[in-house]
Amino acid sequence: MTDPRLAALSQLLPGLRLLTDPADLEHYGRDWTRRWTPAPLAIALPAAADEVQAIVRWARATGVGIVPSGGRTGLSGGAVAADGELVLSLERMNKVLGFDPVDRTLTVQAGIALEAVHNAAREHGLVYPVDFAARGSCSIGGNIATNAGGIRVIRYGNTREWIAGLKIVTGTGELLDVGRGLVKNSSGYDLRHLAVASEGTLGVIVEATLRLADPPPPTSVMLLALPDFESLMRVFATLRAKLRLEAFEFFTDRALYHVVAHGAYRPFEEDHAYYVVAEFAAGEAGEAAALDAFESCVGEGWVLDGVISQSDAQAAQLWRLREGITESLAKYVPYKNDVSVRVSAMPAFLADAQSLLAAQYPQFDVVWFGHIGDGNLHINVLKPEGMDQAAFVADCERVTKLLAAALQAHGGSISAEHGIGLVKKPYLSSTRSAAEIDLMRGIKRVLDPDGVMNPGKLFDPT
Length: 462
Ligand code: 2HG
Ligand code: ZN
Description:
CATH architecture of the largest domain: 2-Layer Sandwich
Mean pLDDT: 97
Strand content: 15-25%
Number of domains: 4
Bound molecules: (2R)-2-hydroxypentanedioic acid, zinc ion
């Protein structure tokens, strides 16, 4: 280890695991965006909060930036280390620390995978209800740092709702214990919520106390085929009125094409323009209500075909059609948009966004899907084979500027649930006012006075 800064870190923390192999730098320096060439200084794998504190103090002394790192499944470049930073991986801090049956909370280290949180909650007869396809690899710390949403937000809300307490090592090296599991606490600013969606720019989340919920009733899944976008919001309103919805997701024919090409089963004989996967409370009443809702949607011409799962295996098969989309598109290195508007603004925004993208992207395969019930659309633009990556991204950026303006006009956000990171940084001001961004910078200055925490993410230093 020749770099004197790393030698100093090793001297400070002789037990600290540090990696500098090129393969490790590459592995830990990137996330799922695959757009930047990883170039971290090294990877640190601390085992405890006091080591994290010492690393932050070292970073302040040496000026090396720190990129906090969980499962690196992010889609906005928030965990990318492409500029000589130290990647601080929470991988070894992945334990369940405790369960409290009275408070109904689970305390975990931040590096634990979301799926391991689900399993731990289930062992106690409860659930941690935030869920999405990357559950096996993403970490709870990363979920909190991006306020991850996923497929059950319409019933349970985003990650933010489930955070009872956090331990955070701030950019000053101080360990804050905020929230402390209290249900009621009107004692001033709630610092928990500054950490949620902060994308590692204020500090490193090292521990979280999560609220747990009662398990949902048994559910069934239905897949519906729709003729047009207008029907989508109508079907949503009908299903929401008649059923206890646990999830309501949509995707287009292009998404189905790719996910089937990737190995999923083909649900209907005929092709349709749009599809909905809805999960709802089952049982006799649930099934009857589902049939009733289905028939009235068919009667209105909003639904053209449909299937209701008859077993858990079939439910999983239907879910795969939605959850397999990201993976099925990965080989195209898509340009991703993750946008939101108020649900009530969705029909008007959709009309604008559709005509905008049809006019601007006539030559690209554009795949729409997402969490329509939350006002959240994912729009993946696929790079044509043989096209230069930089030219493709430049063309997409040109269109994103127009999309950001449309979002601004409809009061929406350029990032619904993936974060700003590096990818959406140029568009932050379409979603946040200048006064808000100034305040955010001010907050960063207080918690990270030397700018060592995830530098260049969210916004550039002034
Ligand atoms: C999803 O909803 C994820 O599946 C990923 O947020 C979205 O790949 C994407 O664009
Ligand atoms: Zn999503």
